[in-house]
Amino acid sequence: MYVPVGDFSHFTSLIMDPTKFPESRPFVDSKASNNIYWNLTCDEVKKVMPNYELSLELIDNNTKNDPTNMFTVTLTKERMLIDGSYFGFPSRCYMPIFADWDN
User: Fold this and answer.
1) By C-alpha distance, which of 25, 75, 24 is closest to 48?
2) Which of 29, 35, 47, 94 keeps 20 to 30 A from 9, CA to CA?
3) pLDDT by residue (tens digit) across 51-70?
4) Which residues is 71 bridged to in the sheet?
């Protein structure tokens, strides 16, 4: 999921709070990569990650006053992780939220 840079920055500041991932904190890459990842495989992350459920409210900026254009996306622990081999880094695990630098 790609989100505006401001939202990505806010989200990553919350995620990097040491109380969110006390065992193994993720890293936030720079603008060049715009992603959140762990230097662990997803199987390793699942072992130390609490049973989180991440819910995001998505709003269409052009019609935000219309509640029919609001959507909630919920990611369970299992859906919150992407194997790094998809990005050429098999020893990493990624969170499926990326900064959209074009908007």
Assistant:
1) 24
2) 47
3) 777 777 777 666 556 667 77
4) 58
